[in-house]
Specification:
By secondary structure, the protein is of the alpha+beta class. Helix content is 31%, strand content 31%. The longest helix has 32 residues. It is found in: Secreted.
């Protein structure tokens, strides 16, 4: 009986091998879930673009005797979507993508003369999201 292996020995070795092969994928899965859960649950569509607001313009404000110059900066709503077939048929120049957007523009502003570059700029006093100037006809 020296040449025969015990059935108990073979099944024990087979079970150990299958347990070892399951441990690595489980560890990898738990690591990936940990990484996915560690990211914040924020809307990342506007990442890198702040909300439309009045901000001090550092270049125009430098050495300006009349005071700092403020400009509207930031992002507003924008989206693109496939143009409906009915609309494409009525277009003079058909386009597959239609976009909508609003831009950060000044509600109120006044002209300020800068002595150093000898130029007149608009000093904004209030901002809001409205139709983009380049979209107006």
């Amino acid at each position: 009986m020296k040449g025969k292996l015990s059935l108990k020995l073979v099944t024990a070795a087979g079970t150990m091998g299958s347990v070892k092969s399951v441990i690595l994928p489980l560890l990898l899965l738990s690591f990936l879930l940990y990484i996915a859960n560690s990211y914040p649950n924020n809307d990342l569509s506007n990442m890198g673009c702040e909300k439309c607001a009045l901000k001090k313009h550092e270049v125009f404000s430098k050495d300006n005797p009349t005071g700092p110059v403020y400009q509207c900066m930031g992002c507003c709503f924008s989206r693109a979507y496939p143009t409906p077939l009915r609309t494409i048929q009525t277009m003079t120049i058909p386009k597959n993508i239609t976009s909508e957007a609003t831009c950060c523009v000044a509600k109120h502003s006044h002209e300020t003369f800068l002595e150093i570059p000898r130029a007149t700029v608009r000093n904004h006093t209030d901002c809001h999201c409205s139709t983009c100037y380049y979209h107006k006809i």
